[in-house]
Amino acid sequence: MNTMTETNHFTQDDERALLDAIDAWVEKSVKPIAREYDHEDKYPASLVEEMKELGLFGATIGTQYGGLGLPASTYSKIVIKISSVWMAPTGIFNSHLIMAAAIERFGTPEQKEKFLPRMATGELRGGIGLTEPDAGTDLQAIRTVAKKNGDHYVVNGNKIWITNSGNGGAILLLVKTDPTAEPRHKGMSLLIAEKGPGFIVSNKMKKLGYRSIDSCELAFQDYKVPADCLLGGVEGRGFQQVAGGLELGRINVAARGAGIAKGALRLALAYAQERKTFGKPICEHQSIQLKLGEMASQVQAAELLVDHAAKTYDRGERCDMEAGMAKYFASEAGVFCASEAMRIFGGASYSVEYEIERFYRDAMLMCIGEGTNEMQRIIIAKQLVARNAQ
Predict the structure, then answer these.
(1) Distance (Å, rounded) from C-alpha 32 to C-alpha 146?
(2) Which positions are annotated as active-site residues?
(3) Can you list the positions of beta strands (E) in 97-241?
(4) Bond preceding residue 226 cis, omega within 30 of 0
């Protein structure tokens, strides 16, 4: 059972008030800077401070550690609202909350008390250090090694595409504590790794979309991590801990995809009523109506799948299939709606003066991040068979 389910007494009135506050914040602080910060690839430091005040860095962290203890169903609605205007800022607290969820679920009591209160306030902002130059979906292929030496581990290796690693203060680092173990996953562990000597942020990567957020390459050169920062205190459990922690991340990415789809529909609908051809608004042309009808249906379906996955997660039930379905469908809906909106905008869509081009650039990442959509379909199929064994 999820900790938040056991301790949280969040009502519908509470949710409504919180979502209204998020709406007001998005209109006041996010929308006015989105285009400028995206084009300049500038880190939104002011938004980070405001997200601290709103409690977003503690959104799903238990109230006993100073977090809001929100159910995933409420959290996903927040993500959809923000992403419908600008997707990138949601990545700042998504990776952070995946790390926090793993600590809250698998950490020792001492680890929870040490890290979660600081993470809930945003004083310590974190991320997930999984991907390497030669290891993405196949996490068992990682080469970063941590060798035990007395009361600490010595880490050597490289990571890539690590969100929050530039401006954040810690990552949950996937390493090989036993490189010779067979099967390979039995030699993998997670370390709660705060920045220090040997933790090198070597390069902020330039990206097509998802700009303003620091996605960096990391190098670890004889980097020392205290032994008591081994997640859960037992080696060899890292792969299972990662697999369990990614469910919340996939629900977040699904919500981001649904938000992109919703935002693209909103922009296309407004433009279709303003733009006239052949003496009437283009929304009155059947070809445009077909697009809008399909987009609206995909947005609604995406939101329902996200909500279903989130509520399954909140009940503490296994939800890899539900999260996979939501992530797969909602991210594809984001790509579809952004692409159709580009067609509705026509030539204007290629101008940076219109925000739809940002939605188009941001959308594809949702199909790749947190496990490719090809992998999601395999997960869905395997679970479908397992749950319906003859």
Answers:
(1) 45
(2) 370
(3) 128-129, 145-149, 152-163, 170-176, 188-194, 199-204, 215-226
(4) no
CATH of the domain at 309: 1.20.140.10
For residue 65, tell me if it sits in a domain: yes
Which range marks the domain in which residue 66 is found? Answer: 3-121
Per DSSP, the three-state class of 133 is coil
Does 284 share its domain with 344? yes
Element (H, E) at 238: helix 238-274
- Give the whole-angstrom CA distance, residue 87 versus residue 329: 17
How does strand 152-163 pair with strand 215-226? antiparallel
- Whole-angstrom Cα distance, residue 307 to residue 278? 42
- What is the greatest pairwise CA distance in the chain? 79
If asked whether residues 98 and 177 sit together in one domain, one would say no
Which contiguous run of DSSP H or E holds residue 276? strand 276-277
Is residue 390 assigned to a domain? no
156-193 tens-digit pLDDT:
999 999 999 999 999 999 999 999 999 998 999 999 99
Convert the pLDDT of each residue in 50-78 to its tens digit. Answer: 999 999 999 999 999 999 999 999 999 99
How far, in Å, CA of 302 to CA of 254, rounded? 8
Provide the sign of the torsion angle of the four alpha carbons 248, 251, 257, 259, taken in this order.
negative
